[in-house]
Amino acid sequence: RSDIRTLTGQHPAVVGHDLGHLELGKPANLDAVPFDQMRESILAVYRYGGINTISWHPNNPLDLTKTTWDRVDSTIRGITADRKNLRNYKKILDKLAVFFKSLNGPGGALIPVIFRPYHEHTGSWFWWGAGHCTPSEYKAFWQMTVKHLTRKRKVHNLLIAYSTDNFINEAHYLERYPGDEFVDLLGFDTYHRNAPQSDSAFTANAKRMVATLKKLGEEKNKLYAITETGLETVKEHDWWTRIVYPIISDTGLSYVLVWRNGRADHYYAPFEGQQSAEDFKSFFKLP
After folding, report:
1. What is the mean pLDDT of residues 230-248?
2. Cβ atoms of 185 and 160 closer than 8 Å
3. Contact criterion met (CB below 8 Å) for 41 and 17
4. Whole-number Å distance between alpha carbons of 154 and 29
5. What is the pTM of this model?
6. Order of strands across the sheet that contains 256-258
7. Burial annotation 57-94 (CB, 10 A radius, 16+ → b, else e)
8. Chain-wide mean pLDDT for the chain?
């Protein structure tokens, strides 16, 4: 069951999960979703033909009592410049490798997933954000992560997504890009805030960023997507057809992912009785 299926009769094409707290060895993630249940969900999505995407909000590897959102400068430098810290961090990556390699489909084949690490790095609200490390440090950290997972731990069921927050232009988007060899999908996250006053500005900004992604995707032969978006509590009844559709229509985007339906005051997808539900049904029928 999902809110999308309840409204449309069809499963969502893309389902997101988050591995935050796997690094702590906990049985459930930072949103209290048990990892065993997540595995079952990923298998269910795969069975009905859907795509799984996985983000990761890890606690700070230098001090695991600090969350993703504790802004600690030079965390990446502290990991990579110290052998012991780097060894400890690679042990954390090993936990991810074990999880990825446990995602078996029918017949035992590994389920492919889109892995989206160190996202929204053009902002500075996470310990890996732009204000806490240099572009070269970020790129080297990314490359080390992908190499460790794919070469050292032989994890071969990942598509790697590079996902900024809002960006100013193409140069800003690519400032911390680790290289084509380490990225399969280009994306960005953008949230609609201060609606309805910001409607036209949000639409224009999102269209501009999608155009940049399309250009880069075609040049680099990469998939591209809006990897996170949404209007919290979807407070505009026609948001899907009036705001989202003009942004994504005829763009070649692979997918658009809205954030979770977590609480009564924190949700991003429509559900039965929600004020945008009828508009979403109309949106669903558009090409």
Report:
1. 98
2. yes
3. yes
4. 24
5. 0.96
6. 14-18, 51-55, 113-116, 158-164, 185-191, 223-230, 256-258
7. bbbbbbeeeeebeeeeeebbbbbbeeeebbeebbebbe
8. 97
